[in-house]
Design a protein that fits this description.
The chain is of the alpha/beta class and about 450 residues long. About 40% of the residues lie in helices and about 15% in strands. A 6-stranded mixed sheet has the order 8-7-10-6-11-12, with helices on both faces. It has a 3-stranded mixed sheet with strand order 3-4-5, covered by helices on one side. A two-stranded parallel sheet has the order 1-2. The chain is globular, with a radius of gyration of 25 Å. The protein starts with 8 loop residues before the first helix and ends in an 18-residue tail after the last strand.
């Protein structure tokens, strides 16, 4: 990373890290600020960041060297793929040193510079991120803001924007109003740049809702294209009021899948609507329309294997959660670009998008709770993502299936354990969990 303080570098670092991790690409952030705090302590005055302070400059370089060395060790010993050095790297000398240290070890370097001269955005970044950092723990907000502004002035006095023609870089200017790209080489670099050009650092909220309770939900059947149950219809009728009470009069756009139950759920909402085939439920292949009991009886080996690795398990003729993540990547790109979007979709589909914003691991993703008749509001922040749930007073079956649950029956709107049925055969496959979901090199076709 490159840029003055409070320009969104940490936010960008965490967003890129979550995106790549979501796609199965091993990624880690190395924050020079954390190393500096270990070396020099907390609550440092702004004078520590004055380039004329030789002793402080020595410690700051030592912190950067420690972070860079740890990243190099991570690449070699832990098979890391993308390391993010989160720091200002604010002059040509620092960037030349980093480039030399990494390229000499055959590590490709991409510099990402965030430039912003909008004082309102800068002040918002200071209040939202910097004042909650360990540097200003238990400090008066006004005094902390004043001190941090002085810190920025020290950086500005010695700052050199990237102009080095021999470096690979992208400049993000004023939260995405302009981009400058130089010497981008390789498939993975191109994907990261494409993501950054869709990323906006301004605050936003995203809303998700599953379709109303369906007839298949009541029967514990997976897949299919069934309509809504009577209670699902009630949810559809009450959804406009739930939106008005909790989201307000924002000019929403509603995205649904192409399946009947999501379209029926959205039909009373007075907003523009868009159908996405990519938002359809996970394709369950030859198990489509079957109950979990029937799957356990007919394909017991796979029923058990799916529990062992639910993210990578692929139904025969269908999809895995892994496949679904790749299918949803274009939707995530559009979500990063747009604001005021309400998505009405399906349990597995929302789980994948929810995991992206919440930073869930692939192991936890298939077990995220996405209840029926509930709007989930997510507010992405620099280090985390805030979540709120808005519920409507309409009952619904709880379709959540915990790891290890075998045959089950419905009791009081919950599926509980029942007698395990007899076994017959096997069905699907498990993908290699060590392979990134998104290829990190381009795939070339050999002419016939």
């Amino acid at each position: 990373m490159v840029g003055l303080p409070a320009r969104g570098k940490t936010y960008i670092s965490y967003k890129v890290s979550r995106y790549l991790t979501w796609l199965g690409i091993k990624t880690q952030i190395f924050s020079v600020g954390n190393y500096r705090r270990k070396l020099a302590g907390l609550n440092l005055p702004h004078t520590f960041f004055d380039t004329k302070n030789k002793e402080a400059m020595k410690k700051r370089h030592e912190a950067a060297a420690m972070a860079l060395n740890d990243m190099i060790q991570w690449f070699s010993k832990e098979d890391g793929i993308v390391g993010i050095l989160d720091a200002t790297n604010s002059n040509k000398k620092a960037r030349a040193w980093i480039n030399q240290e990494l390229t000499s070890r055959d590590i490709q370097v991409l510099f990402i510079e965030s430039i912003c001269d909008n004082e309102k955005v800068i002040l918002s970044n200071i209040k939202d991120v910097k004042l909650s950092s360990p540097d200003y723990c238990n400090r008066d907000p006004e005094a902390a803001t004043e001190d941090f502004m002085k810190r920025i002035r020290h950086y500005e006095a010695a700052y050199e924007t990237i102009t080095e023609e021999d470096l690979t870089y992208i400049k993000l200017i004023n939260t995405g109003s302009q981009y400058i790209i130089n010497m981008i080489r390789g498939y993975l670099e191109s994907r990261i740049v494409y993501y950054l050009m869709n990323l906006h650092t301004r605050p936003k909220r995203i809303w998700f809702s599953r379709h109303g309770e369906s007839l298949f939900n009541l029967e514990d059947k997976i897949g299919g294209d069934s309509g809504l149950s009577p209670r699902g219809e009630q949810y559809a009728l009450k959804l406009p009021e739930l939106v008005k009470q909790n989201i307000g009069d924002r000019p929403l756009t509603v995205w649904t899948s192409s399946m009947h139950r999501t379209i029926q759920t959205a039909r009373h909402l007075p907003f523009p609507k868009k159908q996405w085939k990519a938002l359809d439920e996970l394709d369950t292949g030859i198990c489509d329309g079957m109950t979990y009991d029937e799957i356990a009886a007919k394909y017991p080996e796979d029923f058990s294997r799916r529990d062992e690795d639910k993210f990578n398990y692929r139904y025969r003729g269908g999809e895995s959660y892994r496949d679904l993540v790749l299918r949803l990547e274009p939707v995530i790109m559009d979500l990063e670009r747009h604001e005021n979007i309400l998505i009405i979709s399906h349990q597995a589909t929302i789980r994948c998008m929810y995991a992206y914003f919440m930073g869930l691991s692939h192991e936890k993703l298939p077990y995220a709770r996405i209840p029926l008749h509930t709007i989930i509001e997510l507010k992405p922040k620099a280090f985390s993502c805030e979540e709120k749930l808005y519920k409507v007073d309409v009952g619904a079956v709880d379709t959540f299936r915990p790891r290890g649950q075998q045959a089950r029956r419905l009791a009081n709107d919950k599926f509980v354990d029942a007698t395990t049925p007899l076994a017959e055969g096997a069905s699907g496959e498990i993908a290699d969990s060590n392979t990134p979901i998104l290829p990190i090199t381009s795939i070339s076709a050999t002419p016939c």
